[in-house]
Structure formats: C-alpha cells, structure tokens
Amino acid sequence: MNCATQSLPQPANANALCLVLSITDPEVTRALEQHEEGPPRDAYAKQALRLGILAFQQTAGALDAETVQREGERLLGSVREALNEHTSQTSSSIARLLGGYLDPATGSLPQRLERLTKRDGEIESLLAKHLDGDRSTIAETLARKVGEESALFKLLSPSSADGLAGTVTRAIEEALRVQRDEVLRQFSLNDADSALSRLAREIAQANSKLRGEVAADVAEVKSALSFENDQTPMSRFVLRVEKAQRSVLDQLSLDCEGSAVRRLSLALDDTCATVRRSLTLDDKGSPLSLLRQELIGAVASFTESNAQFQADVRTTLATFRVRREEAARGSLHGHAFEDAAGELLQQEARRLGDVCDRLSGTPGRDGRKTGDYVLILGPESAAPGGRIVCECKAQKGYTEADALEELVVARKNRAAEVGVLILARESASPGFEPFRRVGMDLLVIWDESDATTDVYVKAAVSVARALVIQKQSDLGRSSADVVEIEQCIRSVEGLVAAVDSMAHDAQIVIKRGTRIGKTSNRVRERLAEEVERLMGVVEGMGRGKGE
After folding, report:
1. Domain range holding 91?
2. CA distance 102 to 105
3. Domain boundary pick from 117, 140, 159
C-alpha cells in the first residue's frame, strides 16, 4: 500500500488531521469496496487505520491501560453507530422487499393468490381438469385401476373363476374336504390309531377295572351283612334291636314292677278315685255338690228377678198402650203429635243456638201451608241464616214417596235448603226406615212415648245443619271440610240404623225373658241327668280296670 500525504486546510478540531490516501493493496481495496462510497467507506477506513496504528503501538510496547480503555470505548461507540446504521438500512430494505411481495394493493403475493383462487382461476381449472367429469384424470385413473376392465375388479368379481371369491371357495372346499376326511378317519374302527378306537380300548380297560372294584365291594358288603361272625355290623345291629325289643316289652308289661305301663295304671287308679270323689253327690263337700248348690241358687235368683222384670215390663207396656189408645181416640191426635215434636225441636234449637219458628197453618211463599216448623241457623253457626223446614205427620199409611213429594213442596214454600219429615211410629208403613237421607231431605220415625227415639230427631237436625253448611261450602270452606261433613253424615246414618236394630233386639229380649225362665227348669233337670250319667261312666272305668 502506497501512502502519500498532503497538507490541507486545518479542520475546526485542533486534534484533527486531514489525509488523502491512494490505496493500491488488493486486499485492502477489496475490503474497502465492500462498503458504500462516501461516509460509510471513510468511517470503515478510519477504524481500520486506528486498529493498525494501535496494533503497531502495541507491538512497540507504547500502549498503556488508559489508552486501551479509551480506545476500546471509542471503538465500541463506533461499532454501535455502525450497527445502528446497518440495522436501519437493513430494516428499510426488508420493508421495501416485503411491501413488494405482501402489499394488498400492489404486492405480487396477493395478486398471485387472487389469480389462483378466483372463479375460473388456475386452481379451479386445475381441479376441474383432474376431478370433474368422466374425462378427468382421476376418473380415468379410477376406471383404469378399479373399473370393470381393471385387474382388481376381475380379482373381486364373484363370477370370475380366477377371482378372489373363486379362489376362497376352492380353498374352503379343500379345507373342508381335508377336515371331513380327518373326522371320518378319527371315527373309524378300522384305523387302530383313530380316536374312536382309542376310546373303545380305554372304555374296555375302565370296564374291566370297574368290574373288579364292584366285585370287591360286593364281597365286602356280603361280609358285613353276614351273621356268621358276631362282630359284623349286621350282627351288632340285630343284637341292639333284640335288646331294645326286650326293653320295650318290659316297659309295656304289667307284671314288671317298675314298667311304664304299671306306673300309668297306678296313676289312672288314683285319678279315677279322685274323679269319683269329686263327682259324687253323696258328699256335700264334693266340687260337684257345691256346683249343684250354686247353680240351683243362681237359677232361683234369676227366676225371681226375671219374674219381677216381666211384671215391671207388663206394667209399663200397659201404661204406654193406654196412653197411646187415648191419644189415638182423641180428635186432636195429629195436633198433639205436632206439638210434642215442636217441643223437642224447640229444645234442640235452644241447645244449638238456633231459632225454631212454628208456621203450621200459616201460608208460605207459594200460598200453601206445607211446613210446620222452620229452624233458622244462628249467627254463631258455620252457615248463619240457613233454613231447615220440618214437617210432622201422624197419618196412617203414609209412604216414603208421599214424604219426599211433600218435602219438595215444603222446602220451596218455606225457602229452606233442607227438609226434615218426622213421622209417628204407629203411622209408618212397612219398610219405612227409622232414619233415611234422600238428597237434601231427611226421613225419621219418632215415638213421643219412647224417649229413646228422641235421638233420631236430634240426629236428623244435626245432619240437616251439616247439609246446609255443605251447600254453602262455596263461601270460603275447603273441599276437605265438605268431605269430612259427608263422612260424618254417613256415620250418623249408620249409627241410627244400629240403634234401631239394638232397640228391636231389646224388645226381643223382653219377649224371650219368660221363655228363659221356663227353660231354666228344664236345664236344671238336664244337668242332674248328665251328672248321673258321668258318674256311671266313671264307675264303669273303675270296674274295667279291676278286671
């Protein structure tokens, strides 16, 4: 490298030195030409010159630590500036290059993609060429590879003799033939090595062994059942049976002192003696004598009380009969029954907090006089203002149909929700029930001379009030309450029927009281006969035992 220096005007920095260099060394020239002419090349040449000078100084031993640090910092600053400038230039170049490729408006890549993906573009044309139609590449390839003329189709055709189906069929038939021949050979007795031949030989051997074992077992059983030896099981069993038989005979013999039959006989003797002493009437202290005395006393007491009861009943019935006949002969019998029923209704209304009005003979809404009494439910009841009409009848031959028809008229005439008909017992026709409910009407039989029938009228009033409450259930009362009311009404009907049945049974008891008194004497006589018969049987047992 040749170097020539020339003096130039001094720069502003006093330490600066201007040089004009002419480089002829090829290696240095190539290194400088790699940088752009101008400031970049000058900066690179300055750095190279500085490094060379520092290298010479280091070689000469004149480079100290401070100079190295200072120069290192300056070198790093220069390198940093060069790297920043190079990075900026590189980023600009890359941005320009990528913009030319990726810009949405002018970039070559979006335009190329548009040409490839647009309708009738290159990709669509290529796919249509290879995939669309019978003349496409894929159609021709499939026809050639798997079509009717292809080797695969001929191989899989069931009608082709050289195809897969034919080959498999022939292979299966051959395998079945081989298996059939092998099975026939195994079940043939002509072949000594066949399975059937081996099985027959094994069965024969096992049968021979079994015969030997059975013969040994039979001999052993025969020996065990033999009576020739006293130690065999059968001999010991026979000895035990004979010993047990002798023991049983001893227990069942009367000659043996301690046998069970002898003890049983003694116990029967003692029992017969005790029974004879207890069932004799000769001894006043025997249980049978005491029982006889108590029965005689009880029957006498019952006869006396029954006679007194019959007398009281006859007196009471005669009084009732006289009163009933006098009332029936009177011209105001119907009014008397109506008044008596009214008194009972008044009492029940006062007890329940209701109002009972007598309307007999007073025309009602329809101008009729039907309806003798009206019960108006009080303000404390569940249905204040509810109305119940009561009709009282003491008319012979009055039927249920007549009663129901008259109650319909009475409810309408008196503006009532429920109707109650009170019928005299002697006026009730056969089959007229003592208490019956038909819809919103109640039919009840009452006997003014029998206080026990008052409960029928009271029950009818209670049921009628419940029906009024049930009819007004839409005023805030729940369906559960209505169902409970209906159940209570049905219970009252059943109880009234039960009470009437009990009253009927009581009358039957009164009628049969006399019959019981007459029967008691026959029972006493029959009891004495049975006691005598029992004594005879016991004495017969004692005589049989003595024999």
Report:
1. 1-117
2. 9
3. 117
